[in-house]
Amino acid sequence: MTDEITIYDIINTLKKNRKKVNTKLILKAYHFSNDNHKEQKRLSGEDYIIHPLHVANILSQINLDDATICAALLHDVVEDTDITKEDVIREFGEEIAGMVDRCYKTWKTTIHYKRRATSRKLQKNVFSNGKRYKSYSYKTCR
User: How far is CA 101 from the centre of its chain?
Assistant: First the structure.
């Protein structure tokens, strides 16, 4: 992700598509996320906030509502920081906190099943290849 996106690019995209944009709420979500991720870097070395900004930018281009844009900006704070769902509720309300929570739970479930499937494939390959592993069956690995 080489293109630098700013929160103002996202707000301007939203303003092009509709008359009313809750700029104050979106900026609050951006600053909350940025402040809580400030010490974190992506594997690429970029500031962590780059990812939530890109997600919010994509959603702004399809003109999703302000609450969804806020949830996009906040979607990793519960998972990757000391912030709790209750903190998000207190700061942004139930609707946004619910979206953040569902995003986290969906990601967690997806990763769990992908890891499990990958793990099973690896076990199957390890235990089905080679003469010394012939005595193990795939079913014993689960």
Answer: 10
Whether 53 has a pLDDT exceeding 60, the answer reads yes
Question: In the block, which residue shows the tokens 């942004």?
Answer: 92
1 found inside a domain: no
Q: What angle do CA 79, 84, 87 make, to 5 degrees?
A: 135
The reply to whether 15 falls in a domain is: yes
* Residue 113 in this model has a pLDDT that exceeds 60: no
What pLDDT shows up at residue 23?
A: 97
What's the CATH number where 121 sits?
Answer: 1.10.3210.10
pTM as predicted: 0.71
Catalytic residues: 79-80
2 found inside a domain: no
> How many beta carbons lie within 10 A of that of residue 43, not counting itself?
5
Domain count, the chain: 1
Q: Is residue 116 part of a domain?
A: yes
SS3 of 116, please? helix
Tell me the average pLDDT across 33-41. 85
> Which residue do the tokens 């012939």 mark?
134
